[in-house]
Amino acid sequence: MTPLEISGSLNVIGYGLATLGPGIGVALIFAAAIQGIARQPEARGYIMTPVYIGFAIVEALAILGFVLAFIK
Q: What average pLDDT does range 41-62 have in this prediction?
């Protein structure tokens, strides 16, 4: 087994571990949104706009990590 094969495998394993951060981030964002809407249903419109922005930022970080996993 050459070192290149080992490092390629480590990149993919590293990305697998890195997906935990965005996964937890998305869960926290939507958990807070659900709690906020449950407390103030009439504020749903005001709550969901920052939720979508936060979700997009967290997912952009996940996609960036995916790209960086394959850069040699």
A: 94
